[in-house]
Design goal:
Length: 140
């Protein structure tokens, strides 16, 4: 007897499942994938265990070994993606300046133009913010 020969429990269980469920596309796809890659994911192994545990003549020791293999594998969690950051965040100070100036001079054309830009979520230039501050100083 050759002592170098490894026992492949997963392959044995896949073959037992194919014998028990010859038309199961799930088992067949697992078998093909195992033959190609040489491994299965934790969830695939859990599915194999679920199918194999329904076979009445299956070896309990093989199921126990599969459970041990599954428990040794890391559980991967998908983290949620952070919410997308807005492309432009309104300058609250500019909004307050606009409202203050328009409260005193509601028809001020330059401030109305800046307000339209502000409400359309367009970034205000540093020059426009400086103008708003200058207008506010003039009001006082």
């Amino acid at each position: 007897m050759n002592s170098n020969k490894k026992i492949d429990i997963i392959n044995d269980l896949l073959e037992d499942c194919i014998m028990a469920y010859p038309l199961s596309s799930f088992i067949i796809s697992l078998y093909k994938q195992y033959r190609q890659r040489g491994s299965l994911s934790k969830r695939q192994l859990q599915g194999l265990h679920s199918k194999a545990s329904k076979i009445k003549d299956i070896s309990i020791s093989k199921l126990g070994t599969l459970e041990a293999i599954i428990k040794r594998m890391p559980t991967r969690y998908k983290s949620e993606l952070p919410p997308p950051a807005p492309l432009f965040e309104k300058n609250k100070e500019a909004g307050i300046l606009i409202e203050t100036i328009l409260a005193k001079y509601p028809l001020h054309k330059r401030v109305l133009f800046i307000k339209a830009k502000y409400e359309n979520n367009e970034p205000l230039s540093s020059i426009e913010i400086a103008e708003l501050k200058k207008f506010k100083q003039m009001i006082k």
